[in-house]
Amino acid sequence: MAQDRLRSRTVRSAALLSALVLGALLAWGAGRSVTRAGVEPAGPPPTTQPATVLPATSMPDPSTVPSSAATPPPTTAPATSGAPTASIRLRPDGLGVAAFGTAEREAMDRLQRRLGTPDERGSWTGATPFGTCPGPVRAVRWGRLYVLFTNGPTRDAAGGRWHLFAYQVDATQRTKLDPGYSGPNPPEPPPLRGYSPRTAAGIGFGSTLAQVRSAYGRRVEVSFGEPGMIHRIRIGFGTAGDLWGSLSGGTPSSTVTGLTAGATCGE
Known about the structure:
4 helices; disordered N terminus; 8 strands; alpha+beta
């Protein structure tokens, strides 16, 4: 009887050890298949011992296989064109994917690949809704972002070539304003909503003055006065240029209501 019990325990131990080895092999094999499905090796595969083919009756129930081994982890798909991406940033020298001075066609190609079809287009000669600019202006808008082009001379390009010279993140659809209006109280343009890019530090439309100071410290200057008797903000980046903006007030909880950079248009 003692020998029978010893033999029974030996058989159960061997069975348990076989199950553990099988589970380890399945997990290892699944991990290798997931790796190979995502990335093919650059050279010939390393020489290994051929895997043992297991009979179908010895495979465990699928419900017992860990989900991490049974299902390959999802891979990150590349960003699709037409969707805003983090590569578009508010910078003192442009928008990240297109610097000031970039030819209009090239800048539009880069922007449309990431943002899709614009929400609005417009063109002006002489007075514009953006003020007095270096020359004729073409404006393209996505959400709150206006991108401005001119063929006039700017610090980033000579005259005679259409190029990106400025951008504005706006609270209102200023292109609805009549540049030639001379009455006492011009009508309020409709508010803008939708896409609104930010700086690399995460500052953009709606950020508080406290957040701006936390992100940029002593680079931040706040002033109050004309034109419009509003609070304005300047973020200095040295030789790279400046970011300019407007604020809802002068307290730490006041919010950014607009940002602009480039060869901005005057009043």
